[in-house]
Amino acid sequence: MSVRDEGAQGPRPTPPRGGHGVVGMRERAALHGGSVEIGPHPDGGFAVRLRLPPMAPSADHPEP
After folding, report:
1. Helix or strand or coil: residue 2?
2. Paired residues of 38 in beta bridges
3. Closest C-alpha to 2, from 45, 54, 50
4. pLDDT, tens digit, for every residue of 7-33?
5. CA separation (Å) from 49 to 3, 14, 58?
6. Chain-centre distance of CA 50, in angstroms?
7. How far apart are the first and last CA of the chain?
8. Which of 8, 34, 41, 42 could connect to 47 by a Cys-Cys bridge, CB 3.0–4.6 Å?
9. How far is CA 41 from CA 5, 20, 37, in A?
């Protein structure tokens, strides 16, 4: 999964505090064998890419 914005348009709001930010996203992805890539996009804006391994089928999540 990836998300990208086109860059800031106008004044930047102050982000809320109290979360774990990028470090928290990377830690949570790693707990599930995945990774997170975060940074500026070459065409402008900013991008976040989350990679997780496929889930094994289970009783809660059978194969489609």
Report:
1. strand
2. 48
3. 50
4. 777 777 777 777 788 899 999 999 999
5. 6, 23, 26
6. 5
7. 19
8. 41
9. 9, 22, 11
Find out whether 37 and 31 touch, Cβ atoms under 8 Å: no
Between CA 36 and CA 52 the distance in angstroms is: 9
Q: What angle do CA 23, 18, 32 make, to 5 degrees?
A: 35
| C-alpha to C-alpha distances, 24 to 19, 34, 53, 55, 61, nearest whole angstrom | 8, 13, 18, 21, 26
**Biggest CA-to-CA distance, the chain:** 49
Q: Give pTM, 2 decimals.
A: 0.64
